[in-house]
């Protein structure tokens, strides 16, 4: 469907502004800004989540190391008990 007036009287190559060659308005630019902001907020959320996961991994590794140490000491204690 062709809209009346779009492209008429506009020099070739200025169709990126959808017929608003000199007004500074660009629907593509506005959509790009909106999509960029949306992407920025998603990246920020993923970054925060990955940092939280990193902290959780460190905590779990410390707990596992502590459990390993306790199991080793328990194994040593049980090895000393007469049967």
Question: What would a concise description of this structure say?
Answer:
The protein is an all-alpha fold and 83 residues long. The chain is built from one helix and no strands.
Structural key phrases:
rod-shaped; 83 residues; mainly alpha
Give an overview of the whole structure.
It is built from one helix and no strands. The model has no long low-confidence stretch (mean pLDDT 79). It is mostly helical and 83 residues long. The longest helix is centred in the middle third of the chain and has 54 residues.
Radius of gyration from the CA trace? 32 Å
Strand content: under 5%
Assign a percent range to the helix content.
Answer: 55-70%
Low-confidence stretches: none
| Distance N to C terminus | 92 Å
Order of helices and strands: H
Mean pLDDT: 79
| Helix/strand/pairing category | mainly alpha
Largest sheet: none
Bulk shape? rod-shaped
Q: How many helix segments?
A: 1
**Number of E strands:** 0
């Amino acid at each position: 469907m062709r809209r009346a007036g779009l492209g008429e009287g506009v020099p070739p190559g200025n169709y990126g502004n959808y017929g608003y060659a000199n007004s500074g308005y660009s629907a593509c630019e506005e959509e790009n800004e909106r999509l960029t902001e949306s992407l920025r907020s998603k990246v920020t959320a993923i970054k925060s989540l990955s940092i939280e996961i990193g902290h959780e991994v460190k905590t779990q590794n410390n707990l596992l190391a502590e459990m390993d140490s306790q199991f080793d000491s328990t194994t040593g204690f049980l090895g000393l008990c007469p049967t």
